[in-house]
Amino acid sequence: MTTIPFKLPFNIKLYRPVKPTGVWDWLTTIDHKKIGVLYGVTAFIMFLTGGVEAMLIRTQLIAPELKIIAPEVYNQLFTMHATTMIFLGVMPLSAAFFNFIIPLQIGARDVAFPRLNAFSYWVFLAGALIMKASWFLGGSPNAGWFGYAPITGATFNPGTGIDFWIVGLQVLGVASLAASFNFIVTIINMRAPGMTLMRLPLFTWMTLLTAILLILAFPVITVALIELMLDRTFDFNFFNTKAGANPILWQHLFWIFGHPEVYILILPAMGIVSEILPTFSRKPIFGYPAMVLAASFIAFMGWLVWSHHMFTTGLGPIANSVFTLTTMLIAVPTGVKMFNWLGTMWGGDIDFKTPTLFAVGFLSMFLIGGISGVMHAFSASDYQQQDTYFIVAHIHYVLFGGAIFGIFAGIYYWFPKITGRMYDEKLGKLNFWIMFIAQNLTFFPMHFVGMQGMPRRIFTYDAEMGWAFWNAFETIAAYAVAFGVLIFVINMIKSWNGGKKAGDDPWDGRTLEWSIPSPPPLYNFRDIPIVKSVDDFWHTKQKSDTKVKSKTKVSDIHLPQPSYWPFLVAVGLTIAGFGIIYNLVLTGIGIGIMLITVCAWSFEPVNEPDSH
Amino acid sequence: MSDETTTGLNHRKLLMWVFLGSDCMFFASLIGTYLIYKGSGVAHPGPADVFDIPTTSVSTFVLLMSSMSMVFSYAYLVRDNIKAFRIWLLSTMIMGSTFIGFQIFEFSEFYFHDHLSPQTNLFGTTFYALTGTHGIHVTIGVIWLGIIFYSSLFRNTVTSKTNLDLDLAALYWHFVDIVWIVIFAVVYLFGTFTGFPAS
């Protein structure tokens, strides 16, 4: 590997990498496609660890009064399972698609801030490691994924588990914020000529809305976490009820973040499905403007419903009625989207490849989850359902049957573009049917035991409650879900190494990413395309294949160059984070490293003018 | 990487606006926490016991004037009058530092004289968290302006062509200023307000 120097103030010289190879390449890369792959692989490994936690939970519940797992560990398991799946699984898997696909869909050569993009990934990895390190350093967080204060305060929860949770989430928040700033600027400012907002592919639209939700929602949870951290570390009184603190302040702050977060999880999956259904139905998306408006309305309404998580805290009949109405109102734009997807498939020449199956699976599972959602949107009915397995069933239908199915659909759909190879169709279909059937067998009976009153988050139950049969049933079905995921992993590894060559456009795609080679070259587009309508690439293919002669020489394309700094800033942030848990001196050192590396980063030019 | 963007707005400027939007929610949450807890908890001292409105009015005035001097500084930079740009930039930094000095004085007065610490009561907790966060924002702003001043003085890299560097810092500076107006009104003025005199 070679390096070239650049100058800092006081005549300090630093070096930057040039054409690194191997590990150095991955550590210093600022190519959005490589960062997308890093995000995807890391998040999928995290998804698997969250799955192992789920299997342990289900194993403990297979029969009444089992003592395989101690109650303290059980609390840590369900907390980490949810935290992992939401913050380390679904969100970064969506971010993997944002990274890889968005610049390709809008006809750009990279994102607006490539080094900031690398920074997001390394900070995400730091947050994931801090969170998971808690298993080996004295116990994980144990208060549920929404960490209600004051039960997470130092009085009731003296161990370090909650500190890992607080620091881990803040670090992950930094990663999500940096990535969202980047994608908002990229989508608004780096579209190919002619690509107006109403010509954006729907996945790009959903990404834009997700990023806007993220930048507005994450500051709220960050403030809540800082308040809790100040309480735990410096004896502040934010959640100290003895000093007169309000015990539901945390719930308000958390859910003002938490409900937009739900849409942060599901909108990207909706975007993926909106790309797949038109492609495999061989029809344009039905009602494109309605889809955009419905999603924008969902994103807006997501801010006005948070108290439906708090119906049973005693907010009073007026607040409960208002939030019942606003929550039910969200079902309207969601219904619009559902009918538009059906309208897209209606009368289409549907090709049931694996991505289509997963997308249709998404529609049906999300519909069931959505309907049970409307049931507990009604506050009177919610009093029966709050904190029971009925809620567990609901969130798994929308997040597993919804978000995860959408993400799996996306992985199969874009696998040929990302790797240049075709996945194994037979294994893909097998994967779908096992996961589809098993997930229904796992989660549907949870509605029954929930209605029979089985509370969530209990480590065991009495044999006389009559919940034993369905719990055993659910556990066995959950193992089958895990088997389905195993088939997926085998398919991915096998196909990545030895799959058939896919070609540039295996699905007869509609969006710009299919107009370039698979896998895409470093510079993505040799010539920046000119866009005249929605699905412009597909219309171009229909007319003729007279390609415009290329005017750009490849050697004229300037790309941003690799950099050490994003990685090093993330290292500083990790040290500072551990410092808050163990010793504030470490925090000082970490912040010092961050200051120095941020300065070096800001003095490093994006491109060396004399190095291509 | 061409300099042309879809909207015509520079990437970094758009980034700054998006960041400020996000920061609004950050301060909104802190101010919200303060307002929710206003008046709850019985332990003294409370806002009316500690605030000295004339002193804080002076520091508020200084911070507001710093925004004006920031505008002058940017206007001179755009006209390539480097000397005037440096003078106004320096004056902005001095006024920002004065504001921070006032805040340190105020905090130590509350802490040592009025025995109000963050641990004392809910008012102390929410007051120090909110105004402290704002103080950190001002400090970062002063350091940022300091880096620009240094670059201008010793590297001569700040000119009308690179005015965006100052433009971004100025946007941030004005934002932090506006947040203080809200804090001054909501925390200080409402905190000591005891009702209109009976007529």
Tell me the layout of helices and strands.
The complex is a heterodimer of chains A (612) and B (199).
Chain A: E1 2-7, E2 13-18, H1 22-28, H2 32-60, H3 71-105, H4 114-133, H5 161-189, H6 202-234, H7 249-281, H8 288-301, H9 317-345, H10 354-377, H11 379-385, H12 389-419, H13 425-451, H14 468-498, H15 536-543, H16 565-581, H17 584-603
Antiparallel strand pairs in A: 1-2
Helix pairs in contact in A: 2-3, 2-4, 2-14, 3-4, 3-5, 3-7, 3-12, 4-5, 4-16, 5-6, 5-16, 6-7, 6-8, 7-10, 7-12, 8-9, 9-10, 10-12, 10-13, 12-13, 13-14, 16-17
Chain B: H1 11-37, H2 47-50, H3 53-78, H4 82-113, H5 122-155, H6 163-192
Helix pairs in contact in B: 1-5, 1-6, 3-4, 3-6, 4-5, 5-6
Q: In a nutshell, what does this entry contain?
A:
By secondary structure, chain A is mainly alpha-helical. Helix content of chain A is 64%, strand content 2%.
Keywords:
heterodimer, A: 612 residues, mainly alpha, Cytochrome C Oxidase, Chain A, 2 domains, 64% helix, B: 199 residues, 6 helices, elongated
Describe the structure.
The complex is a heterodimer of chains A (612) and B (199). Chain A is mainly alpha-helical and 612 residues long. Chain A folds into 2 domains: 1-29 and 561-572 and 581-612, no CATH class; 31-233 and 244-544, Cytochrome c oxidase-like, subunit I domain (Cytochrome C Oxidase, Chain A), CATH 1.20.210.10. Chain A has helices at 22-28, 32-60, 71-105, 114-133, 161-189, 202-234, 249-281, 288-301, 317-345, 354-377, 379-385, 389-419, 425-451, 468-498, 536-543, 565-581, 584-603; strands spanning 2-7, 13-18. Chain A has a two-stranded antiparallel sheet with strand order 1-2. In chain A, a hairpin with a 5-residue loop joins β1 and β2 (13-18). With 199 residues, chain B is an all-alpha fold. Chain B has one domain: Up-down Bundle (Four Helix Bundle (Hemerythrin (Met), subunit A)). Chain B contains 6 helices and no strands. Chain B has helices at residues 11-37, 47-50, 53-78, 82-113, 122-155, 163-192. The N and C termini of chain B lie far apart (68 Å). The mean pLDDT of chain B is 91. Classes of the chains: A mainly alpha (612), B mainly alpha (199). The A-B interface holds A 9, 109-110, 112-113, 177, 181-182, 184-185, 188-191, 195, 215-220, 222-224, 226-227, 230, 234-238, 243-246, 249, 253, 256, 558-560, 599, 606-607 and B 1, 5-7, 9, 11, 14-15, 18-19, 21-23, 25-26, 28-30, 32-33, 36-37, 40-43, 118-119, 121-122, 124-126, 129, 147, 150-151, 154-155.
